[in-house]
Amino acid sequence: MKAVGDEADLRRTSLRLGFQAGLLVVACLFVVGALIFVIYERAADAAANQLLSDTTTNIDAASEAPPGVLVVVVTPKGRSVSPGMPDGLPDEEQIAATTEDGKTRQVEIVRGGDTYTVRTATAGDRVTQAVLDRHEADEQRGRILTSLLTAGVAGVLLAALLAAWLARRTVRPMADTIAMQRRFVADASHELRTPLTLLSTRAQLLARRLRRDPRVTDQVVADVDGVVDDTRTLTEILDELLTAADTRSRAEWTAVDIGGLVEDVAGAATATAEKSNVTLGIVDLATARVEGSPASLRRALTALLDNAVSHARSAVTISVRTSGRRVEIEVSDDGPGIPDDVAPRLFDRFSSVRTESSTVDGRRHYGLGLALVADVAANHHGRVAVSDRADGEQGAVFTLTLPARSSSR
Q1: Burial of 258 (0-12, 13-18, 19+ CB in 10 A)
Q2: Which CATH number fits domain 4-139: 3.40.30, 3.30.160, 3.30.450, 2.40.350?
């Protein structure tokens, strides 16, 4: 059965996509509508101008005026005027000026709240003034605008609903997959907590008994204490995984002492390094703090060290440096380096081609460690990169760069 939170997320995502699609349709309709309206305006103006030009050129008397146009024809024999000429028209000044100089004039005149286009021109020995009422054209323009707006609103609503429905159908398989992954992480983490708690308890009891036994060396006690610390780290990782799987909560970020964290991780990795005959050393340890999840950063550093130890021939070095407002953690090894054909997909999941027989520790590697480092770096607004060693020796250098914590916090 789906969690209520997953359904709510799916609904919100679908509505958001639908709303965005609706906005996109609004923008498209606005552009198309504006183009249509501009084209219509220009076509209407061109048609009106052509009608007035033909009228003033071709008619000889007011009775020959085309529908919708009122005319005044002035000839040496007199003048004829179309019936129904509006008050204030014809424009005698325009007629007089054109009669005198023979130039064609076209102006917009407002009479009684209505707009008229008036064209005055000569043709032979006559002067013709044509008057076109723009009222009908304005009404037509208003009807077109109303139609465009109505169609736009209907199109937006339809597009938004259709986009929300399609988005829900498209996003649901992804949401189901994410929900399945979240359930698996939660179930696996929960099931691992019980045996891990038992292991931690037994390790602590063993450490107490060993401390009371005078025959046990300090090194053995330190190794058992390391096991206790490792089980505590595993518990923190499981808690973080459970938090990540729970949509109701978010992992708490705190100020993390990178230097101290590097020392802890290096100490925990020493036993693995010694087993592989690899020397693990810290060559530079600047004082630096970042804002983030301690468990996530620990996992990232552990993965970097594990990768370096598994490739190194004899030595792995770690350094922590600050550069401006950044913290750089470098893990260097003297292994074979990174082949050119592997580098582009080095931080992809399942990119490893190593088998059990090709590794020193005999473990199978799945190519998840460096992908995890890249994810942790991105989640902490940082990055991870790989390069060859600067000293020219064979090997690889992984650099984890994180934003330094502001001193004002």
Answers
A1: buried
A2: 3.30.450
Q: Which 8-state DSSP code applies to residue 390?
A: T
Encoding tokens for residue 124? 């032979």
Q: How far apart are CA 377 and CA 386, in angstroms?
A: 13
Query: Is the pLDDT confidence value at 375 over 50?
Result: yes
The continuous run of DSSP H or E covering 257 comes out as strand 254-257
pLDDT at 2: 45
**Do the beta carbons of residue 179 and residue 245 sit within 8 Å?**
no
Joined together, the tokens standing for residue 300 give 């990232």
Residue 85, helix vs strand vs coil: coil
Q: State pTM to two decimals.
A: 0.51
pLDDT single digits (tens) 257-288: 999 999 988 988 888 888 889 999 998 888 88
CATH superfamily, with its number, for domain 252-403? Histidine kinase-like ATPase, C-terminal domain (3.30.565.10)
